[in-house]
Amino acid sequence: MLDEIASVARLDFSPRHSQPPASRVLLATVTAIVGSLAADAILVAIGEAVFPGTRGYVHFRFADYAKLTVIGVIIACAAWPIVTRVSSAPRWLFFRLAVLVTLVLWLPDLYILYRGEPLDAVAVLMLMHLAIALVTYNLLVHMAPTGPVRPGRQSGTGWKTGRNPEQGSQETRRSPR
């Protein structure tokens, strides 16, 4: 059963690519924090302009959302090198993890909506979570990509499949004759 889960999740623990340099991950982390905070501030400004009743909403205060944004981005950025180490298809896996985490982070938003918070304010909070995920994912995979295939690496060809999941099937990789 664990083999099946690992196969579906594209975990093989022995990728052929090299790890993203720590300096690139750090740069992507700082950029993701700044970009996410900027996206949050823009969404709050738009939300307050479109929905004037949300002005002064407690969760729209910079100190309130900035702390949680920074923590979340740091966790995501720490996860990227781990994902690149355990999967030969790190972007595939990391994208799905980002979607899953975003959905999980919407649960508290839905809870406060259930508890009576205004729909328009909660919708902005949900957009903020989505924006943070989009900014962080894209900056990490583009600013701190995995490196080229390491010479001499024979493993990392997918979990018991005999192929690299990011390269497609054998049929789609035929060389021209």
Structure, explained:
- With 177 residues, this protein is mainly alpha-helical.
- It has one domain (20-145).
- It has 5 helices and no strands.
- The radius of gyration is 20 Å and the shape is elongated.
- The termini are far apart.
- The model is unreliable at 155-177 (pLDDT under 50).
* Order of H and E elements: HHHHH
**Count of helices?**
5
Number of strands: 0
Cα-to-Cα separation, first versus last residue:
41 Å
Chain-averaged pLDDT: 85
What quaternary form is this? single chain
How much helicity do the residues have? 55-70%
Radius of gyration: 20 Å
Uncertain parts = 155-177
Main pleated-sheet profile: none
What is the molecular shape?
Answer: elongated
Number of domains: 1
Estimate what percentage of residues fall within beta strands. Answer: under 5%
The structural class is mainly alpha
Keywords:
177 residues, 63% helix, elongated, mainly alpha
Briefly summarize what is shown.
This protein has helices at 2-8, 22-50, 62-86, 90-114, 119-143. With 177 residues, the chain is mainly alpha-helical.
Topology:
Layout (H helix, E strand, L loop, with lengths): L1 H7 L13 H29 L11 H25 L3 H25 L4 H25 L34
Helix pairs in contact: 2-3, 2-5, 3-4, 3-5, 4-5
